[in-house]
Amino acid sequence: AQKITQTQPGMFVQEKEAVTLDCTYDTSDQSYGLFWYKQPSSGEMIFLIYQGSYDEQNATEGRYSLNFQKARKSANLVISASQLGDSAMYFCAMREFYTGTASKLTFGTGTRLQVTL
Amino acid sequence: NAGVTQTPKFRILKIGQSMTLQCTQDMNHNYMYWYRQDPGMGLKLIYYSVGAGITDKGEVPNGYNVSRSTTEDFPLRLELAAPSQTSVYFCASSFRDRDLAGAFGPGTRLTVL
């Protein structure tokens, strides 16, 4: 079974609008972390935002917020006031905190966001 | 700090050739990782290391080898390159395995023909 599922291969949003990128995950761990990364066309991986499984409040970082619904196992990324520079590939990832081992980051297949004028 | 650096940025190999992808970090991070990203996909873990002299397999280790003789360096060796190894390779590092995001290198684009 897929551990991270991103069901939107591509999304369009108009400049200055908000957009939600979906991510659902599957784990039996109680302790885990969820990450969102941005990958522009230049190829580098840029960390955006993190949510820990025990964090009670949704994470926010500037225009990025994470809509964390633990019971539904979803961790959607919300980008407010979209900018042309937000056009990129976005990856959701999960780190399961196995005791005693280097925890591994599992990635989804990504969502390509295109911001239009 | 230069962060995580990778060389080369691009490489074309013929089937059966070997090469080493270099990765260096100057942040004194204990944990280092090698990922590959196939076209249109997310990243998959190849190998990781929790410190100098200690390495372990990730999700897709076949066809690769690693070593970690120093904290700074974590080279990835491809022996007998195959077309299935055509991918973008990312090296990453973090101070602890639970670090929020770690740091990613810029990637190496490898094509095997």
Plain-language structure description:
The complex is a heterodimer of chains A (117) and B (113). Chain A is mostly beta strands and 117 residues long. Chain A has no helices and twelve strands. In chain A, the strands form three sheets. In chain A, strands 2, 5, 6, 10, 11 and 12 form a six-stranded mixed sheet that branches. In chain A, strands 3-9-8-7 form a four-stranded antiparallel sheet, with no helix packed on it. Chain A is globular. Chain A starts with a strand and ends with a strand. Chain B has 113 residues and is mostly beta strands. Helices cover 0% and strands 50% of the residues of chain B. Chain B is built from no helices and eleven strands. In chain B, strands 2, 4, 5, 6, 9, 10 and 11 form a seven-stranded mixed sheet that branches. The N and C termini of chain B lie far apart (36 Å). The model of chain B has no long low-confidence stretch (mean pLDDT 91). Chains A and B meet through strand 5 and strand 10 of A and strand 4, strand 5 and strand 9 of B.
Please outline what is shown here.
The complex is a heterodimer of chains A (117) and B (113). Helix content of chain A is 0%, strand content 50%.
Layout of helices and strands:
The complex is a heterodimer of chains A (117) and B (113).
Chain A: E1 4-5, E2 10-14, E3 19-21, E4 24-25, E5 32-39, E6 46-52, E7 60-61, E8 64-69, E9 74-79, E10 88-96, E11 105-107, E12 111-116
Parallel strand pairs in A: 2-12
Antiparallel strand pairs in A: 1-4, 3-9, 5-6, 5-10, 7-8, 8-9, 10-11, 10-12
Chain B: E1 4-7, E2 10-13, E3 19-25, E4 31-37, E5 43-51, E6 54-57, E7 64-66, E8 76-78, E9 87-94, E10 103-104, E11 108-112
